[in-house]
Hints:
The protein has helices spanning 21-30, 50-58, 103-109, 128-141, 235-239; strands spanning 9-15, 36-42, 69-73, 84-89, 92-97, 113-116, 164-165, 170-177, 183-185, 195-197, 200-204, 216-220, 226-230, 246-251. The chain is of the alpha+beta class. The strands form two sheets. A seven-stranded mixed β-barrel has the order 8-9-13-12-11-10-14.
Amino acid sequence: MPTTFPQRKIITLLTDFGSIYPSQMKGVILSRLSDVALVDIAHDIPAQNIRAGAFALMTTVRYFPKGTIHLAVVDPGVGTKRRGIAVQSGGHVFVGPDNGLLIPAARSLGVPKVRMISQKFEASFTFHGRDIFAPMAATLAEGESFENIGPRVDPVELDFGKPHHSDKGIESRVIFVDHFGNLILNLAEVPEGDLKLKDRHLKRVRTYAEAKGIEPLITIGSHGFAEIAVNQGSAADVFGLAPGDLIVLERANCSE
């Protein structure tokens, strides 16, 4: 017989809030729901970096079951006229600010349906994650119909851009830096030929261990994007790069 699992609501949380403020959001949810699984995706997204948050959310949500509610807040516009939205896609629901953060993840699962959060909450000007989005996620987990959230709207879009070929080489952008200092690029495949970055050769590998210690490398990561890493080191430190930086992968015939 197939294994059956309890129909327990799952709410994930992703923020740039660090260690203190997420607990307040969890407290709001737990005061409303007695049986809910709260799963932290990340709370160390670089401050105000919407693209980094969007990437982390997009590459994680596919591993959660349908019915999961994803509460994501990276919100430089908190307290302004930017909208709060809920997005339904592929059997999942996303709640957060309308600044592009939710859209790549929603599109990775299906065709997003977006509604503005019209319900009024008593909210501070600086913490809508706790005062608006957490209560909205709890309301949805309690069974509120998605259609009752508010009117349909067209969301703010966000994508990670595309690499460009130039006389210098392949121009790409760093869209995320992980805990190990690996530089994830907006490239879906590793370009052919020998490559170098800032005059350092990048060894083409499948696994990190194929490179020597402290040797720069390039590979396709588990997220499906090209990444530059340093075996037993940090590519972010070696190359002095951060999310959002533009790089040039130079083509080089190199025997290093």
